[in-house]
Structures are given as C-alpha cells and as structure tokens.
Backbone:
C-alpha cells in the first residue's frame, strides 16, 4: 500500500516537472520571439543585444512624437504618425533608430529644419501637460513598436503634413486621417 502512494506521488511530481519545463520553454520562446521581432522590424538592425533600457528609450521617443504631433487626433491618427516614424527607420534617407528619426535635424539654405516641427520649436523640452493624451500616446506607441500594430493603407507612408498647410509636395498622396495628409515616396525609375 505504501508503495502505491509513493508511485502516485512520484508520477504527480514527474507530471508537474514536465509541465513546468514546457511552461518555462514557452515563455522563453515567446520572449525571444518578441525581442527578435523588435530588433528586426523596429530599427535595431544590428546583431547587438537589445536591452530593456534601449527599448524603453525608443518607446519614450515614439510616445513623445505621437503626443506632440497627434495628441488630439483619433486613435488611427496617432497610429498613423507612429507608423510613419517607424517606416522611416529602415529608409536610407533617415536615421536608423526611432529616436534618431524623431530628433533628426537637417540644414536647408543655412536654416535648421527638424523632421518633426515640435522638436525645433522646443516643445519637447517641457513635460507633457495633458496626462490623458500622454497615456493614449504611450499606449499607441506600445501597440505600434512592441506589438507591430499597423494600418495596412499606410504601409508605404513616409511623409505627412497637417491639412491646414500646403507644402506643394509632389509625393504620391495616400490618404488623410484626421488633420494629417499622408504621402509615399516618389517612385524610382527602374529602367
């Protein structure tokens, strides 16, 4: 009788150990997949290790850009701004990280021009005052940066401007979402 109880307890222990092994393996695989997904799609193109601090920094930059560019836009408008930011990362015409894209400056005719006007206007030096809009921007940044959430229509979007200005761009227009009009790059002639 004592032997049967020992066998059942031993079998239960084995079952628990196997279940624990598979759980740990699944979590490790999922975590590895998320980091691989992040590094391959979000501007971390090298084989270096991506730290939690680096992900947090990139998330902060994207959140700040969404907040200052689209705080009062609908959800899709916030996603669109985030998506354009990330679409620029692998593009050779822009910096190769999220923060690099957000804080990129160029000089045109002896004048400093930022990719995103809020940065040149100095608004990024002040803490956000609308905490609800900041939290919404942060949620969108997480969805786009970490969960790879995208609007299919903006797959090629690389530029946008507010609908109340007219920069006279000749880029192909994609769509308008909220107060922003989105554009693709000019097609290259491959002849």
Residues:
């Amino acid at each position: 009788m004592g032997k049967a109880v020992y066998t059942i307890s031993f079998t239960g222990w084995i079952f628990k150990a196997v279940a624990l092994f598979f759980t740990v393996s699944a979590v490790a695989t999922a975590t590895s997949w998320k980091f691989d997904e992040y590094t391959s799609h979000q501007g971390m193109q090298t084989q270096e290790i991506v730290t939690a601090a680096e992900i947090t920094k990139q998330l902060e930059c994207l959140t700040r850009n969404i907040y200052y560019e689209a705080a009062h836009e609908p959800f899709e408008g916030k996603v669109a701004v985030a998506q354009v930011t990330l679409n620029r990362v692998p593009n050779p015409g822009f910096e190769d990280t999220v923060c690099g894209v957000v804080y990129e400056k160029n000089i045109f005719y002896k004048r400093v021009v930022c990719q995103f006007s809020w940065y040149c206007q100095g608004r990024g030096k002040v803490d956000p005052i609308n905490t609800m809009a900041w939290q919404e921007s942060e949620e969108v940044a997480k969805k786009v940066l970490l969960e790879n959430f995208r609007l299919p229509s903006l797959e090629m979007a690389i530029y946008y401007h507010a609908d109340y200005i007219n920069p006279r761009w000749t880029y192909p227009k994609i769509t308008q979402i909220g107060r922003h009009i989105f554009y693709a790059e000019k097609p290259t002639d491959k002849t």
User: Anything to note?
Assistant: The longest strand covers residues 157-162. Residues 70 and 148 are 19 Å apart (CA to CA).
